[in-house]
Amino acid sequence: MLKGLNHKELTISLIRKFSSFTYLNITQFLGALNDNIFKLLIVYQFIELEGIEASHSILAITGAIFVLPFLLFSASSGTLADRFSKRNIILATKILELITMLLGVLAFANHSKWGSYAILFLLATQSAVFGPSKYGILPELVPSDKISKANGLMTSFTFLAIIMGTFCASFLIEITGRNFIFASLFCSAIALAGVITSYCIEYTPPTGT
Fold first, then answer.
1. Residue 114 CA to chain centroid, in angstroms?
2. I need a labelling partner for 79 at 20 to 30 A (CA). Which of 23, 136, 137, 167 fits?
3. 165 vs 79, 88, 90, 129, 161, CA distance in Å?
4. What does the alpha-carbon distance between residue 69 and residue 172 come to, in Å, rounded to a whole number?
5. Residue 129 and residue 90: Cα distance in Å, rounded?
6. d(CA 110, CA 100)
7. Alpha-carbon distances, residue 136 vs 23, 84, 100, 130, 174 (angstroms)
8. What is residue 84's DSSP assignment?
9. How far apart are CA 52 and CA 117, in angstroms?
10. Which 3 state secondary structure label does DSSP give 5?
11. Beta-carbon-side half-sphere exposure of residue 127 (alpha carbons within 13 Å)
């Protein structure tokens, strides 16, 4: 059946095997997974460098830096999602995530505390921009009678990503022999996968002005 298709048609055919909602759900799962892994990698590295007695301040600073972009940018990100294609915003944020993770590798390689915190702030910023488009695009991808179910699925996968991220961060540290560079390269691979899945989401036009 696929024998008569050229390379481009075959690629499109393979992409369409899954719905845009499936690609969206995978994209947001990978993003939430990455957020939690990278955040914990920062915590683990600086506890190792500064000692267990500094763990409380490291956890407090890391948590505050990660939350701050959601407080600062969530409202304006909702306006952005109305003015531009939500699919394009999702794709742009995933590309930004990939660039951020590659910079994160450099921050870990240099044991840069404030560099790592700056990368975490950028990571949280792209997540804050991603959020309104992630939920706003649902009515454009699924029938109106399936929106509640779609919301439930996305919420379930988000919590699954948080749980898995907590486990994966510890697991990566163990299997890499506490090599934070290799562990952060894994985050870059997750970000690349997110770029690919976000590209597979069908284009949606802007809905507002």
1. 21
2. 23
3. 30, 26, 21, 21, 6
4. 27
5. 8
6. 15
7. 15, 12, 24, 10, 39
8. S
9. 19
10. coil
11. 28
Give residue-wise pLDDT tens across range 176-199.
888 999 999 999 999 999 999 999
Dihedral in degrees, nearest 10, Cα atoms 141, 145, 148, 153: -60
Residue 184: which of 84, 115, 138 has the closest Cα?
115
> Torsion-angle region of residue 111: left (phi > 0), alpha (psi -120 to 50) or beta?
left
Provide the residue count of the chain: 209
Residue 91 tokens, joined: 């794709």
CB atoms within 10 A of CB 177: 8
User: 80-124 pLDDT, tens per residue?
Assistant: 988 999 999 999 999 999 999 999 999 999 988 889 999 999 999
The encoded tokens of residue 95 equal: 């590309």
What burial class does residue 127 get, using C-beta atoms within 10 Å of its C-beta: 0-12 exposed, 13-18 middle, 19+ buried? buried
